[in-house]
Amino acid sequence: MKQHLVYACLATLFLSACGAQESNQPVATNTGTATSTPAPTDAIQIEDYTFRISHSVEGEKGHIDLYLTKGSANEHVSGANIELTLTAPDGHTETINMSEDAPNKHYAATATMDHTGEYQLAARTSVGSKKFTPRFTITNTK
Fold it and tell me: How many of the other CB atoms lie within 10 Å of CB of 32?
């Protein structure tokens, strides 16, 4: 009986350790309503970079803004390559290259957001030789 308990404890520790490695990516949540643009309050910090997301939905189109800054001064990071993968509540995925809106100091994309519910975002980002994939959850409340 003690052996089974020891094996169960070891298995639990092993699975917990594996799960921690897989979920090592920070996740932020941003809930917005249709036709409004929430302030980019949800932040993910990776190394010296901060990622903030905001979105708005009008009809079936979503507008997504990603603010990428660096350092304690939160200076806009220009010239990043950002590929956004959006997973809808029904599991459908859409991959979009975000374009830099330099005057407004953020990156932007338009995506189909025709379902009510949570959308998962993965923003594969390259800044020089550095690569990051912050993950966000946004909600379309229509």
Answer: 19
Where b means 16+ CB within 10 Å and e means fewer, 62-73 reads bebbbbbbeeee
Tens-place pLDDT, residues 44-62:
999 999 999 999 999 899 9
Q: Cβ(49)–Cβ(41) under 8 Å?
A: no
Whole-prediction pTM: 0.71
The total number of structural domains in the chain stands at: 1
Q: Which domain range does residue 110 map to?
A: 26-140
CATH number for the domain that contains residue 70 = 2.60.40.3340
pLDDT tens profile 62-104 = 999 999 999 999 999 999 999 999 999 999 999 999 999 988 8
d(CA 108, CA 15): 38
**Encoded amino acid at 84, one letter:** L
What pairs with residue 118 in β-bridges? 139
Helix count and strand count (H, E) for the chain: 1, 12
